[in-house]
Design brief:
This protein is mainly alpha-helical and 240 residues long. It folds into two domains: 64 residues, Orthogonal Bundle (Arc Repressor Mutant, subunit A); 141 residues, GntR ligand-binding domain-like (Four Helix Bundle (Hemerythrin (Met), subunit A), Up-down Bundle). 68% of the residues lie in helices and 3% in strands. A two-stranded antiparallel sheet has the order 1-2. A hairpin with a 3-residue loop joins strand 1 and strand 2. Helix 3 runs antiparallel to helix 7, helix 4 packs across helix 6 and helix 4 packs antiparallel against helix 10. The longest helix has 25 residues. It is globular, with a radius of gyration of 18 Å. This is FadR/GntR family transcriptional regulator. It comes from Paenibacillus filicis. Keywords: DNA-binding, Transcription, Transcription regulation.
């Protein structure tokens, strides 16, 4: 007998699938406003970043419209086909860490370049708000990690390319799956590392703000290169 590997569902997938069902069943009518991120996080008993990832997935699927500062609304017209169970299942679950990091560099640099060209004032405000959260959470490892992830997702959203957003969400989850909580917490607990991340993120934001696509791509590539080298070092050095 041949068995198909089973991959445990992550929290954002569960939230995404539940909300997708609620939307498609008409529980949330077309054009209606969804509960806030805070309310959804409390209701599902998950972190806000989990809810944001689920909502970004729904947006990539064309099911919702996220209005920065104005909430999340069900699309006026829903896609005819539900497609895959979750928008973040773009890649297979068994890619190696090396493969994930290699692809991430090209996808994120492309997101940054397009964001510089296409970003709206609302997109820019959303990225800036995450930068402020990063500054406010320098001493909180988990919140710092959430803010870091949100920063990159906001840039992918600002690219206004749903396929890139799907890839970004998938790659983010794959990276989390490869790295244990202890590795991630060590990384974000190093204040010098977090301060460097903040400075590099600020530089990327400024290039996007100034609509300098070349500089935004270059700064993102350099940033991802540094982060990935550290991630690979942690992955190699920590006991499995």
């Amino acid at each position: 007998m041949t068995f198909k590997p089973v991959r445990p569902q992550k929290g954002s997938e569960i939230v995404l699938q539940y909300l997708e069902g609620q939307i498609r069943s008409g529980h949330y009518p077309l054009g209606s406003k969804l509960p806030t991120v805070v309310d959804l996080a409390a209701g599902f008993e998950v972190g806000r970043s989990t809810v944001r990832e689920a909502l970004s997935g729904l947006k990539a699927m064309g099911l919702v419209d996220i209005r920065h500062g104005g909430g999340t609304y069900v699309s006026e017209v829903l896609p005819q086909s539900p497609g895959e169970p979750g928008a973040t299942d773009f890649f297979r679950p068994n890619e190696s860490l090396k493969e994930v990091l290699e692809v991430r560099k090209y996808i994120e640099s492309g997101c940054a370049e397009l964001a510089a060209l296409r970003r709206s004032d609302a997109d820019l405000a959303a990225i800036e708000a995450v930068l402020e959260r990063m500054q406010d959470t320098l001493g909180d490892e988990r919140q710092a990690e959430e803010a870091d992830v949100d920063f990159h997702v906001r840039i992918a959203e600002a690219s206004h390319n749903t396929l890139l957003l799907q890839m970004m969400l998938s790659l983010t989850q794959r990276l989390k799956e490869h790295m244990s909580d202890s590795r991630r917490m060590w990384f974000f607990a190093e204040r010098s590392s977090v301060e460097l991340l903040l400075a590099e993120h600020t530089g990327i934001y400024e290039a996007i703000r100034d609509r300098n696509a070349t500089l935004a791509s270059e700064r993102m590539t350099a940033h991802i290169g540094k982060v990935d080298r550290l991630v690979q070092s942690l992955y190699r050095d920590e006991p499995q």
